[in-house]
Amino acid sequence: MSGIQRFASAPGVPAAVGPYVQATSAGGFVFTTGQIPAAPGAETGTFEDEVHATLSHLESVLVAAGSDLEHIVKINTYLSSRDQLETYNRVYERFLAGRRPARTTVCVGLWGVSMEIDCIAVVTTPQGGST
């Protein structure tokens, strides 16, 4: 397919644990795979540490795919407990520094992780991906 780039891995981000890539760009947008704090089941510290790690991974994937946090237009967050929302919002606000993309946040059952975040962002610098 012409115009579609796939990004298998970004530096410092846990490798995909299934048959997918970390991001795909098409039509001037980057679509990221859900990012998690670390490999499922791995100890990562406090929930605040996990939010920070997950948003850092998301940022690394976006940069590898030619975008950044500034250009997110939609972000989806999946939390494993409603009690996480206040901490998540606090760290999220620091990372996004007042930028407010459209957002969905839901509480769901996850496979061995406390949270997952994916997003759609505008491509600002086309990068070479793998197809």
Describe this entry's structure for a reader.
By secondary structure, this protein is of the alpha+beta class. It has one domain: 2-Layer Sandwich (60s Ribosomal Protein L30, Chain: A), CATH 3.30.1330. The protein is 23% helix and 25% strand. The protein contains 2 helices and 6 strands, in the order βββαβαββ. A 6-stranded mixed sheet has the order 1-2-3-6-4-5, with helices on one face. Helix 2 links the parallel strand 4 and strand 5. Helix 1 packs parallel to helix 2. It is globular.
Task: From the structure above, extract its key features.
131 residues, alpha+beta, 60s Ribosomal Protein L30, Chain: A, 2 helices
Q: What are the secondary-structure elements, in order, as H or E?
A: EEEHEHEE
Helix proportion range: 10-25%
Q: Overall mean pLDDT score?
A: 90
Largest sheet: 6 strands, mixed
List strands and helices in order, with pairings:
Elements: E1 5-7, E2 23-26, E3 29-32, H1 47-64, E4 72-79, H2 85-96, E5 102-107, E6 115-122
Parallel strand pairs: 4-5
Antiparallel strand pairs: 1-2, 2-3, 3-6, 4-6
